[in-house]
Amino acid sequence: MNHPRKAFYGIAEIAEALGLNRQLVTAWRRRRSHGLPEPDAELSSGPIWRGETVEPWIDAFRDRGDGGEMQPVSGELAMRAGRRMLRVAALLLEQPIRLRLLSQALTEARELLPLVDAAADDPLRRAVVQLLSPLRVNDSGNLDEFRRQVLVEVAQLAPLAELAAQSLPTSESAG
Question: CB within 10 Å: which end of the chain, N or C, has fewer?
Fold first, then answer.
């Protein structure tokens, strides 16, 4: 328990407790992902949770390594990162670019950043961090440069797919 306890939480307070940005927590809520509990109430300013509703989830989220100490990247997460970056690349290659779909694909791909952010101490984590690296550097506003960066990283998917496949359970170990 590293965060001060509160009586009520909104999106901003949850994001702060986890050290994440508000947009990411908002996306998780909208998609009903990451196990985020349903809010206790909705105000015109947004959803709110009682401390006793959301704090156990915050603690569990940290214990899993999602917001605290990092654990090895799974093959499934690596494959998900690859699929999301392929979607971004495909949308960047369209003419004209459909900005709404590209924005949605970028948001979904960026959701994975907190799951892999850490010192890249294992080969799979290093490969996923490298694949997602263009998502961190997007402040120039130069769409052509961003497109080039994404396509360069997506071109390196074969080694990532091989590493991810090696870490997935085999059919005999799954049964």
Answer: C
Q: Which pTM does this prediction carry?
A: 0.56
Q: Are residues 86 and 57 in the same domain?
A: no
Does position 173 have pLDDT exceeding 60, yes or no?
no
**70: pLDDT strictly greater than 60:** no
Three-state secondary structure string covering 110-124: HCCHHHHCCCCCCHH
The answer to whether the CB of 106 falls within 8 A of the CB of 143 is no
Average of per-residue pLDDT across 49-69: 76
Structure tokens at 123: 């080969």
Q: What is the mean pLDDT of residues 51-63?
A: 85
Q: Which domain holds residue 139?
A: 75-174
Q: Is the dihedral of CA 97, 155, 108, 33 positive or negative?
A: positive
C-alpha count within 13 angstroms, C-beta hemisphere, residue 134: 26
Q: Which amino acid is at 113?
A: L
* 3 assigned to some structural domain: no
DSSP state of 3: S
Q: Does the CA dihedral 16-17-19-25 come out positive or negative?
A: negative
